Amino acid sequence: MATMKENAPMTAEQRKVIFASSLGTVFEWYDFYLYGSLAPIIAKQFFSGLDPQSAFIFALLAFAAGFIVRPFGAIFFGRLGDMIGRKYTFLVTILIMGLSTFIVGLLPSYAAIGATAPIMLIVLRMLQGLALGGEYGGAATYVAEHAPHGKRGFYTSWIQTTATVGLMLSLLVILGVRTVMGDAAFGDWGWRIPFLVSVILLGVSVWIRLSLNESPAFQKMKSEGKTSKAPLSESFGQGKNLKIVVLALLGLTAGQAVVWYTGQFYALFFLTQALKVDSTTANLMIAASLIVGTPFFIVFGALSDKIGRKPIIMAGCLLAVVTYFPVFGALTKAANPALYEAQAKSKVVVSADPAECSFQFNPTGTAKFTSSCDIAKQVLAGASVSYDNVASAPGTPASIKIGETVIAGYSAKGISADEAKKKDAEFKKAVADTLKADGYPTSADPARMDKFMMVVILTYLVILVTMVYGPIAAMLVELFPTRIRYTSMSLPYHIGNGWFGGLLPTTAFAIVAQTGNMYNGLWYPIIVAGMTLVIGTIFIKETKDVDIYAKD
Fold first, then answer.
1. Comparing C-alpha atoms, which of 232, 212, 248 is closest to residue 86?
2. Distances in Å between the alpha carbon of 411 and those of 353, 423, 447?
3. pLDDT tens digits, 490-508
4. Spatial separation of the C-alpha atoms in residues 479 and 144, rounded to whole Å
5. What gap in Å lies between CA 36 and CA 378, rounded to an integer?
6. Cβ within 8 Å of residue 503, ≥6 positions away
7. In 3-state terms, what secondary structure has residue 9?
8. Contacts of 484 by beta carbon, 8 Å cutoff, 6+ apart
9. Are strands 348-352 and 388-391 parallel, antiparallel or unpaired?
10. Are 283 and 297 in contact, with CB atoms under 8 Å apart?
11. pLDDT tens column, 255-286
């Protein structure tokens, strides 16, 4: 009987379940990722009181706020889903998500209402995070409980495509509106349109979700009176289940999350911030790679039904650890060859007394960097120039070496405002002129870009994403019994993706800001993916042949 079920073609009801669950989830991801896709504009609109570098990092923090609260949404909505059902729980999440997104399009900017604007933005972003915390677990559980044994990886892999398709949809909508309006109008007010049109997607999502039936596994469990009365206690208060939750987090979802965010969002930010590629070109390159790479979610999901979930996920983590540094180096060469050549020919080195160097992050905009070290690093950061650090003798003024040219720094301590302004202008001009003379570009030249190779490299990063993400839903579902499945799988997934993954862009760029080296942000995903590779390989058991109803 099991074999017949495994080999049976997909029924019309199963196709409807997958389509409806996936489409609704695509719209939620679209809403969620608008923030990331518009981070540079969000920085200018809502954090204009800060210096540009801090404003961008703070915009990423606003983006990350949604990720931070996702585990709390997982706990709240996971508990609700295990007690009242899958269908109505993730119907509520789409309503919260859609309305929070729509309201962002109506928010006044920092220039209009001051600090109230970013506060309201962050509150709405947190509501989105709570909603998404309940959405994914519900959709994955719902589809998995409709899937026949032996095809669970294939069925749930359709849900896995939704995050990428939602990101791609956000990029394409932004690109379309920007193209029609022009960059100036889009940056001024047109950026609101992608948020406002989300209300249409909300209407479609609600209609679709209302047409679905409840999960048959939940219906059966409810009719038998076996639903959990305390899913939180059962999930996290019992040592046996808690151990699985922790292992699922450290040995699966943490590594999966950092590979996901590196391959998509960090790659996008790296193109625009470090490699100085214009946003339209960067979005087109990312969108092209997503179009080519997205089918591999289905490929690896189906493959996991045959060879197992674990080897595919671990292979993705291993490839990330081994290849990230050379791959991002190759991306630099393809996207901005002038920058690549200049870095190879004329390295930039800051020599300074370490005691004079502050942490290069100014979230409030009130910190005054007056030491020669801080001034030198601020000037290079403002020009998006990657540099190495060399410690000099105590009390020695900082200097910047570009190729063979050494530019002496200055300290603004104890000098008048006029003198400081004069020295600042002279120092910045000397640095800018030397950088130009040594071939450092102010922006990536579209005529010199190897766009084919850019798409190839970005597609490779997306394929790594599909390896770790395609099988993960099926594996998480298979780890836990039906009565607490929604709650138990949601928490490790959203801690992994909300904290380890969601904080990646912010953490990586803070590392870059502090060290000066534009590649050093990659150490964060490499270390986390390496941890998951070790823990997952040793402690996580294969689940593809597990009967998900055996413990009901």
1. 212
2. 12, 9, 40
3. 889 888 988 898 888 878 8
4. 12
5. 25
6. 64, 67, 68
7. coil
8. 82, 228, 231, 234, 235, 241
9. parallel
10. no
11. 999 999 999 889 988 999 889 999 889 988 99
> At residue 45, what is the residue type?
Q
Widest CA span in the chain: 86
User: Which of the pair, 117 or 24, is modelled with greater confidence?
Assistant: 117
Q: What angle (nearest 5°) sits at the alpha carbon of residue 346, between those of residues 507 and 435?
A: 80
Q: How far apart are CA 97 and CA 134, in angstroms?
A: 10
Structure-token pair, residue 83: 């007690």
Distances (CA, A) of 196 to 99, 101, 189, 264, 376: 10, 8, 12, 24, 42
Q: Which helix (H) or strand (E) holds 485?
A: helix 485-495
Neighbouring-strand partners of residue 407: 400
- At 208-230, the pLDDT tens digits run 777 777 767 667 777 767 666 66
Residue 536 CA: distances (Å) to CA of 202, 310, 312, 315, 430: 38, 8, 11, 11, 52
Sign of the dihedral through C-alpha 421, 427, 432, 433: positive
Residue type, 126: M
Domains in the chain: ranges and CATH: 13-336+445-539 (1.20.1250.20), 348-437 (no CATH)
DSSP-assigned letter for residue 213: P
CA 120 to chain centre: 22
Q: What is the pLDDT of residues 159-213, one digit of tens each?
A: 888 878 888 888 889 889 999 999 899 989 999 999 998 888 888 878 877 777 7
Measure the CA–CA gap between 194 and 38, rounded to whole angstroms.
Answer: 10
Question: Scanning the structure block, which residue is given the tokens 């209402």?
Answer: 113
Mean pLDDT for 498-527 is 87
Contact 6, 544 (CB under 8 A): no
Band the pLDDT of 1: cuts 50, 70, 90.
Answer: very low
Distance CA(289)–CA(454), nearest Å, equals 9
Q: In terms of Cα–Cα distance, which of 91, 72, 92, 178 is closest to 133?
A: 72
Angle at 488 between CA 487 and CA 490, to 5 degrees: 65
In 3D space, the residue among 40, 35, 42 whose CA is nearest the CA of residue 63 turns out to be: 35
- CA 377 to chain centroid, in Å, comes to 27
pLDDT in tens, 397-408: 999 999 999 999
| Residues composing the chain | 552
Among residues 87, 70, 19, 525, the alpha carbon closest in space to that of 265 is found at 525
| pTM for the model | 0.82
